[in-house]
Amino acid sequence: MTRGLYIHIPFCKHKCNYCDFASFSGQENQIDAYLGALAREAALYKGITCHTLYVGGGTPSLLAEHQLRRLGKIINKNFCPISLFTESTLEANPESLTSGKIAVLREMGFNRLSMGLQSFNDNELKILGRVHNAAQFLQAYQAARVGGFDNINVDLIAGLPTQTMATFLDSLQRLIDIRPEHISVYGLQIEEGTPFFEQGVVCDQILMRAMLEKSHELLSQAGYEHYEISNYALPGKRALHNTHYWQNGEYVGLGSAAASYRKGTRCQNTSSMSDYISCMENGKTPIIFSEHLTGKAKQGETLMLAFRQLDGVELTVEQKSFFGAEIQRHIKNGLLTQTDKKVKLSKEGLYLASEVMRSFVAPFEEI
Hints:
Radius of gyration: 21 Å
Strand content: 15-25%
Number of helices: 14
Helix content: 40-55%
Low-confidence stretches: none
Distance between the termini: 36 Å
Shape: globular
Strand order of the largest sheet: 9-10-8-7-6-5-4-1-11
């Protein structure tokens, strides 16, 4: 059985205006205590075999070199040497990814980076609340190449405030020109509790969709495979860890706000960093939520995740019995399409995926 390992690093230099992730700025003095808590939690899972590794956040590259090495020792001691994971990814932001840290990461065995660019336009980066500029990204990206990383993902956002089709296409083309192995293009989502939400920022959904359609066109022409709603990869460079999620595989999550899914049960740790540290220091569980899905709920989640992949889904007898009517409805309304034995999002469904996905999440609609 394939299993993923996710480790959450919640520290950031600055909280971006669109970010609703469990991350905190100005808390670097807590990193060492947090790593100590991670070590205690990891020991609870010692010996469990995991095949892919993803260190996300937050901004994992904010850790100092000695703190990155300490994190590596925690992983090596409780799971396996980082070099033995089929894929091992660390998220990095340009302003904190130095040549020294790149060397440490390669020495530790990491074989993939995921870099947050979001835009090549410095004005758009300021509006987002990013603390890097385009030149810093290019410097960090080149340093990663020189340092030996030959598998890099770069994130781009469509639909930013003040962004025009021209500025978006400029960012996209500049990104294509440097040819990372993997590109993630996300439409901006305004989530409650973020500065953008409080400021009343509203996305131009029509323009955003046009940007996403151009992304599909230009990236496909450039040799990238559009394999998941927001993700593109050069041949053989699909994100293995994330694909494992979309296939509803098992994973272990460590750290504040991290989720785990094992033996049909999903659980999640507290998102409070201080509570997480306190729990681990006092021998208490940091888990604040747990559920075991069976029957229609379990099959619905499996389908919801699977439909994110553009390859499509070959339905089981059980899935047809639970959701046959919903699937036929979406085929008739043009959001799903069926070819041979596989059902997948149509071109229209690709941009209205949430309309499809809600059919597979309880409470279920009566048809």
